[in-house]
User: Fold this.
Amino acid sequence: MKAERRRNYYEKTVRPIVDHEKMQYTKKLIQHGDVSVFAHSMAVAAYSVKLAKKLGIRYDRRSLIRGAMLHDFFLYDWHKINNVGDGLHGFAHPNTASKNAVRYFDLNKRELDIIRKHMWPLTITKLPKYRESWLVCAADKYCSLLETFGLNTYNDDTFVKKPAREHETRRKIKTINIPQKK
Ligand SMILES: [Fe+2]
Ligand SMILES: [Fe+2]
Assistant:
C-alpha cells in the first residue's frame, strides 16, 4: 500500500514535471560547477523536504516539491547570456523562471511565490511569503554552496527514483505464499 501511494504521488506530482521536454532540456544547462540545472533543481526539492522534516513544521508537500523543481526554470545558459532583457541573471531569473513555468504548468500561489522569491535577499524587495518559499530559499543556498565548492554528491539521476511499475508490484504480490491449513 505504501509503495502504491508513493507511486501515485510520483505520477501526480513529480513525473509531469520531470518528464516534460523543457525540464529534460535543463539537463543540458549547467548551474554550478559540473551540476546541471536539472540536478540542482531536484536536489533543492529533496533538501527542502528534508529541511521541513527536520524543523518539524507543517507544509504543503506538493507545492514545495513542484515549486522547488521549477525554481530555476529559466531555460537558457546563464554562463553565456547573463543579461536577459529584464536585467542581470541573478536578479531577473526568478521572473523568467515563473513566466516559463506558468506557460507549461498549472501553478498555485505557493508554487509561484517559491519561484519568484527564491533569490531573496539578493532580490531584497521580494520577501518570501509562505513557509514553503522560505524552505526553498534556504535549500537553494545550501545546494548552491555545495555545488560551487564541488561538495555535492548528486547528479541528474540521484533524486529521480522511479517507483516500481504496477506490473512489477503485482508480480511481487503474487510471489507471497500464504500457507493453507488443511
Ligand atoms: Fe535561482
Ligand atoms: Fe537555484
